[in-house]
Write a structure and sequence with these properties.
Number of strands: 14
CATH architecture of the largest domain: 3-Layer(aba) Sandwich
Bound molecules: uridine-5'-diphosphate-glucuronic acid
Oligomer: single chain
Structural class: alpha/beta
Radius of gyration: 24 Å
Distance between the termini: 57 Å
Strand content: 5-15%
Strand order of the largest sheet: 3-2-1-4-5-6-7-8
Largest sheet: 8 strands, mixed
CATH topology of the largest domain: Rossmann fold
Shape: elongated
CATH superfamily of the largest domain: NAD(P)-binding Rossmann-like Domain
């Protein structure tokens, strides 16, 4: 444990999960946030975001153990903490580069406070920033506005996160590895102390290396998905079951079968953004990563594969089509870059009446997409429907069998995530097409 309170700037999904997990481990943490509603909610032990287990964890560390507290008072935050983790968003610019505005504005405020302080503070960038950012723009602003020097007057490092939405708490508490990036011994020692209770491999690297590891991890995983999706698209021309292909190649331990599920492409706030940013960086250095260009191109097309199959089987114009799943993956309400929305939009363009059922969106509306109907139940969504496309593999969809679809008008089910049991549909009155398997 670290002797003083640890500070987290930004209580989005990464900041809040990380702060709450550190608090669970017994660390006192303080969160700086500008949104007063969020502060109030956190201090009442109520999670402002949906993440598996976070509500209970927050209640425990705020209400019972009093280990976590949120404030908007930057001066108080600065005085109480010796180490701050920056957990602010880095959204995409239209050219694919990352927008550093939130981080750089905050860094300037910290630098001004540093200029008036005699204490040694350490700033750790947890946000995803491209190689060269922390030791470049961030360091320059800190030194310029504080009139102090990194290493001698304050510490600076990176500590990328590898949390998956939906299992972020488990990922934090049981990590595969921890990456600690620093260019000087003080920050290296501080980071070591903070993470001294973890049993996994801990790698001390430079700041640039830490930033690069994060981008390469996400880009590699995204590329693995696009690769298997292209293979699945080809496999549809043969009598092939993709599960057997993945088993066959994935049991070579150099390849592994993990993160190798073909489907309708990757979404979320991380993979698309990070792949674009690394690609943009590579172009800037005239070293274009062509493989990432393909990764994105394949992924942009992949959701429409389900529509191609639909159009090959029925005339969908003016018909009710049901989409199962809205979020970009199960166990989250996050719809950023969700393949489901791309499919809904295209179907509406093609003149279909689109109804969506997603367990986490029951009773909710989607004002940005008011042309799609959000159903309150599975049965409501499929009643009189001409086809169902399963887009998000929520647990409750996995055991669906032919009789569950009896209310449909025309019984065509397209499984875009390969979760339904093909055998149970044989000899039924429901035509099941599983993406990636032969015999379309
Ligand atoms: C991802 C990474 O997995 C985390 O390690 C990383 O910390 C995080 O981004 C981040 O940078 O913050 P996340 O975006 O939460 O996490 O989601 P994943 O579970 O990785 O899934 C991403 C997408 O890939 C989803 O749309 C999912 O459906 C798709 N996917 C995943 C596949 O299509 N096939 C697979 O085999 C696995």
């Amino acid at each position: 444990m670290y002797e003083s309170q640890i500070g987290f700037i930004g209580t989005g999904y990464v900041g809040l999960v990380t702060a709450a997990c550190f608090a669970k481990l017994g660390q006192d943490v303080l969160c700086l946030e500008i949104d007063n509603d969020k502060i109030q909610s956190i201090n009442n032990g109520i999670s402002p975001i949906y993440e598996t287990g976070l509500q209970d964890l927050l209640f425990e560390v705020v209400k019972k153990k009093r280990k976590l507290y949120a404030t908007n008072d930057r001066k108080l935050f600065f005085d109480k903490c010796d180490i701050f983790f920056i957990c602010l968003p880095t959204p995409s610019n239209s050219d694919g580069s990352i927008n550093l505005k939130f981080i750089l504005d905050e860094i300037k405020e910290i630098a001004i406070l540093l200029s008036k302080s005699d204490s040694y503070k350490t700033i750790i960038i947890k946000s995803t920033v491209v190689p060269g950012t922390t030791n470049g723009k961030i360091k320059n602003i800190l030194e310029k506005y504080s009139n102090k020097c990194v290493g001698t007057d304050f510490g600076l490092g990176v500590n990328p996160e590898f949390l998956m939405e939906g299992s972020a708490i488990d990922n934090f508490l049981n990590p595969d590895r921890i990456i600690l990036g620093s260019n000087e011994i003080n920050t290296k020692n501080t980071l070591s102390k903070i993470y001294n209770n973890f049993n996994c491999p801990i790698f001390h690297v430079t700041i640039d290396e830490g930033e690069m590891i994060k981008y390469v991890s996400n880009s590699f995983l995204a590329t693995k998905i696009s690769f298997i999706n292209e293979i699945a698209n080809l496999s549809e021309f043969f009598n092939i079951n993709m599960d057997n292909i993945v088993k066959g190649i994935g049991s070579d331990h150099r390849i592994s079968n993990k993160f190798f599920r073909s489907g309708l492409g990757f979404g979320g706030s991380c993979f698309p953004k990070d792949v674009k940013a690394l690609l943009h960086l590579s172009k800037k250095y005239e070293n274009e990563l062509n493989i990432l260009k393909s990764t994105l191109e394949i992924n942009n097309k992949q959701p429409y594969r389900a529509i191609q199959i639909l159009n090959n089987n029925i005339d969908a114009f003016n018909k009710k089509i049901t989409i199962l799943g809205l979020s970009f993956k199960p166990n989250t309400d996050d719809i950023r870059e969700s393949p489901s929305l791309k499919i809904c939009d295209e179907l509406v363009k093609q003149g279909c009446e689109v109804h969506v059922y997603d367990p986490i969106y029951v009773g909710k509306s989607l004002p940005t997409h008011d042309y799609i109907t959000i159903s309150n139940s599975f049965n409501e969504a499929i009643k009189d429907s001409s086809a169902v496309i399963l887009v998000t593999e929520w647990a409750e969809f996995k055991n669906l069998n032919p009789s569950d679809f009896h209310l449909m008008k025309h019984k065509l089910v397209i499984d875009g995530r390969r979760v339904l049991n093909e055998k149970s549909f044989i000899n039924s009155n429901v035509k099941l097409i599983i993406l990636g398997n032969g015999n379309k």
